[in-house]
User: Fold these one by one.
Assistant:
Number 1:
Amino acid sequence: MSGRGDERRVVLGRVAGLFGVRGWVKVHSDTRPRENILDYPVWQLGGSGRWRSLRLIEGRVQGKGIVAHLEGCDDRDAAVALTGARIAVGRGELPPLAEGEYYWADLEGLRVRTIAGRELGCVGRLMETGANDVLVVRGERERLIPFLPGRVVTEVDLDDGVMVVDWDPDF
């Protein structure tokens, strides 16, 4: 793929709370559909440079959320220790995408410039809205740019780490 490396962690969600007294946790999943987070047999949990791998023993949809039982997490106290941890997998574990499709994690950090060559900053994050996804571009100021491939986003070059947009820099 790109020089950005396939060994990066991609955050798929977080441990949102406790479920019961036997070590199960509630999971906030950013995958689509949300239960796809259960397709990964080993989760990396942590944040702030401290990560550990835990095997997913069992997981399921529970109401409007996801619950999971992780290796070594067999009581309420162990589950409390995981609360708030981010859930990640290695970038290489994600399924390949079709041409022109991107994981959000691949877009974060790209330099953004207009079709006229003006640098706008870097993609800080993406947001879901009802109509379309939005790029949060941080430069001399923050800009919200619709992620509309072929219309606003004219080029994405992961190898060079650049995204070209048809966007008025004064907007």
Number 2:
Amino acid sequence: MAIGATIHTFDVQLSDVDRGVYEQLSLKVAQHASETVPFMVTRVLAMCLEHEEGIAFGLGLSGGDEPAVVVRDRTGALAAWIEVGAPEAERVHRGSMAADRTAVYTHRDPERVAARWAGKRIHRAEDVRLVWFDPGFVDAVADAVARRTAMVVSVMEGVLYAEVNGTTLTSSVHERRAG
């Protein structure tokens, strides 16, 4: 018998001063049996840092044709394709062709992620954003996560301040282009 997903609830108070986004989010996150907590945390952080109207978790691990996070416009058209982890160049290429905006949030070594893409075809690679955090940040957030997690996420001048179940953490939000 297959092991089912573990459901986590994140109550997030989001204040992204850099983008002028202020929201109260209640996120139900299904952690797939094969998904690590740092990967799940990176999905949640991507959801917060990309938050806009029409954003949702994609089918991710269980649905090969969707990224971890999607943004659809009011017509249902794909506006943003947001991957998590270390996706293959082919997947990033497909996402960049399908959506106006493409980003990859990683909890892994960003240089290794980018090296896997070197010399491979990625549509509009110069527009694809690779986003990561300071070493140890995602693991520290993962250590503070419970099945029900209260988070305060603030972004100001490229720095992410997070309070996770009473633990306060800080990281720069690093970014580079795929191409």
